[in-house]
Amino acid sequence: GAGVSQSPSNKVTEKGKDVELRCDPISGHTALYWYRQSLGQGLEFLIYFQGNSAPDKSGLPSDRFSAERTGGSVSTLTIQRTQQEDSAVYLCASTLAGRTDTQYFGPGTRLTVL
Amino acid sequence: AQSVTQLDSQVPVFEEAPVELRCNYSSSVSVYLFWYVQYPNQGLQLLLKYLSGSTLVKGINGFEAEFNKSQTSFHLRKPSVHISDTAEYFCAVRRTGGSEKLVFGKGTKLTVNP
């Protein structure tokens, strides 16, 4: 079946611009996570959505980062006024309700801020 | 808070040799443990996980790991590696309750040489 998909696969932007990254979880998966993978910091948790509960935003590095999940499915991660240190691969993962021990990851979006 | 240490950033081995990738974790609460693999330009794929029960866990592609609570370790092993095992391997932990975000180690790059 279809896995987690992310778009775009690559994004190059100029410093100061806003970007939106999209994640389509596996159909029926109720939990969705965003992580960031960068050379200096490794893999870091950003934000977690579970059903209709308030999201866990504890990993967002600054108020320039925000995310939403519409209709309990697709999620968009927005980075405002991008900085060069935002360059990284942004990974999305989803899990099935009741089986949250296994997170299924998408291929990621590689963001380059010039 | 949880933390994960992967002691080796790079491990080169010859084909058909055994390999062990080391992982130690720190946590004041009980955790679940995971190993993920990332092939070049791909997303993360779950290799194996420890939730409870037998401390020896078998995963895909002939990998296994042993949970050692007293040493807070979860080392990954394979008795005979193939060229196709060349990838980056990430150890991760997650609290058994509460927020279900994964906390990752920095990763170990396994290179299998002919």
How would you explain this protein's 3D organization?
Helices cover about 0% and strands about 55% of the residues of chain A. Chain A is mostly beta strands and about 110 residues long. In chain A, strands 2, 4, 5, 8, 9 and 10 form a six-stranded mixed beta sheet that branches. A four-stranded antiparallel beta sheet of chain A has the order 1-3-7-6, with no helix packed on it. With about 110 residues, chain B is mostly beta strands. In chain B, a hairpin with a 5-residue loop joins strand 5 and strand 6. The model of chain B has no long low-confidence stretch (mean pLDDT about 95). The chains are: A mainly beta (about 110), B mainly beta (about 110). The interface between A and B is medium-sized, with 25 and 21 residues.
Q: Compute the average pLDDT of chain A.
A: 91
Major sheet of chain A: size, sense and barrel closure?
Answer: 6 strands, mixed
Provide the low-confidence segments of chain B as ranges. Answer: none
Shape label of chain A: globular
Main pleated sheet of chain B: 6 strands, mixed
Q: What is the CA-atom radius of gyration of chain A, in angstroms?
A: 13 Å
Helicity of chain B, as a percent range: under 10%
Average pLDDT for all residues of chain B: 93
Continuous helix count of chain B? 0
Low-confidence segments of chain A = none
Quote the distance from N terminus to C terminus of chain A: 37 Å
Secondary structure tally, helices of chain A: 0
Strand residues, percent of chain B: over 45%
Write the topology of this structure.
The complex is a heterodimer of chains A (114) and B (114).
Chain A: E1 5-7, E2 10-13, E3 19-24, E4 29-38, E5 42-50, E6 65-69, E7 75-79, E8 88-96, E9 99-105, E10 109-113
Parallel strand pairs in A: 2-10
Antiparallel strand pairs in A: 1-3, 3-7, 4-5, 4-8, 6-7, 8-9, 8-10
Chain B: E1 3-5, E2 10-14, E3 19-21, E4 24-26, E5 31-38, E6 44-50, E7 56-58, E8 64-68, E9 73-78, E10 87-95, E11 103-104, E12 108-113
Parallel strand pairs in B: 2-12
Antiparallel strand pairs in B: 1-4, 3-9, 5-6, 5-10, 7-8, 8-9, 10-11, 10-12
